[in-house]
């Protein structure tokens, strides 16, 4: 399956940049849903990341008729029973996610602050319906650090640094979205016969 254009079901500039960086060697032009003319915001009411990614992909595919990728991702914190999970984007008002998370984890010992970012990417074309998953293990720190990230990146520790303290290349190499995108990249490359 050779494709030269696909739509990413997002208008999030950070996600779009990550996707374009990773898929660019395949020569695929990645459009935002706005650039493709898809003005939709479906209700992400799936039971898991895979369901939500496919809900978004389907809505944008129906609006554009072009191959679509959509992702759903979130932070799963062990001490919170896996929360915020699929509700990561709605867990707290925008910009207050880290503060709420740190508040909920106040007094929780370091060894119990384990967490992971999970990502599922759905690919939907006229002949395909697939998902690709990735995760990144870490733990929740005690304060926000770094400026090179968004969402929960400033409190998600990988080793002794937060995701927001990593360069774009370092983050792409280990991130949940990067892992899922590499699976997608491999699939697209192999299915195009390259």
Unreliable residue runs: none
Number of H- or I-type helical stretches: 5
| SSE-based structural type | alpha/beta
What is the helix content? 25-40%
Please provide the count of β strands: 7
Broad shape: globular
| Rg on CA atoms, Å | 17 Å
Largest sheet: 7 strands, mixed
- Termini separation (Å)? 10 Å
- What is the ordering of alpha helices and beta strands? EHEHEHEEEEHH
- Share of β-strand residues: 15-25%
How would you state the average pLDDT, rounded? 92
Strand order of the largest sheet: 2-1-3-4-5-6-7
Features:
24% strand, seven-stranded mixed beta sheet, 30% helix, globular, alpha/beta
Short description:
The chain is an alpha/beta fold and 194 residues long. The protein has five helices and seven strands; from the N terminus they run βαβαβαββββαα.
If you had to describe this structure to a student in words, what would you say it looks like?
With 194 residues, the chain is α/β, with parallel strands linked by helices. It has five helices and seven strands. The protein has helices spanning 13-23, 49-64, 97-104, 168-174, 176-191, and strands spanning 5-8, 29-32, 68-77, 114-124, 129-140, 156-158, 161-162. The protein has a seven-stranded mixed beta sheet. Strand 1, helix 1 (13-23) and strand 2 (29-32) form a beta-alpha-beta unit. Helix 1 crosses helix 5 (176-191) and helix 4 packs across helix 5. The longest helix has 16 residues, at 49-64. It is globular, with a radius of gyration of 17 Å.
């Amino acid at each position: 399956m050779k494709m030269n254009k696909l739509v990413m079901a997002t208008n999030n500039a950070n996600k779009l940049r990550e996707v374009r960086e990773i898929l660019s060697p395949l020569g695929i032009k990645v459009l935002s849903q706005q650039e493709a003319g898809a003005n939709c915001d479906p209700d992400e009411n799936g039971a898991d990341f895979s369901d939500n990614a496919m809900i978004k992909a389907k809505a944008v595919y129906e609006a554009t008729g072009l191959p679509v990728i959509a992702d759903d991702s979130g932070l799963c914190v062990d001490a919170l029973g896996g929360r915020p999970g699929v509700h990561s984007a709605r867990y707290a008002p925008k910009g207050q996610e880290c503060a709420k998370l740190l508040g909920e984890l106040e007094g929780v010992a370091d060894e119990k602050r384990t967490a992971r970012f999970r990502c599922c990417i759905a690919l939907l074309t006229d002949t395909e319906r697939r998902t690709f998953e990735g995760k990144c293990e870490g733990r929740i720190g005690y304060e926000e650090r770094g400026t090179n990230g968004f969402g929960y990146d400033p409190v998600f520790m990988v080793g002794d640094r937060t995701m927001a303290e990593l360069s774009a290349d370092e983050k792409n190499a280990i991130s949940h979205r990067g892992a899922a995108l590499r699976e997608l990249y491999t699939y697209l490359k192999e299915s195009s016969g390259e």
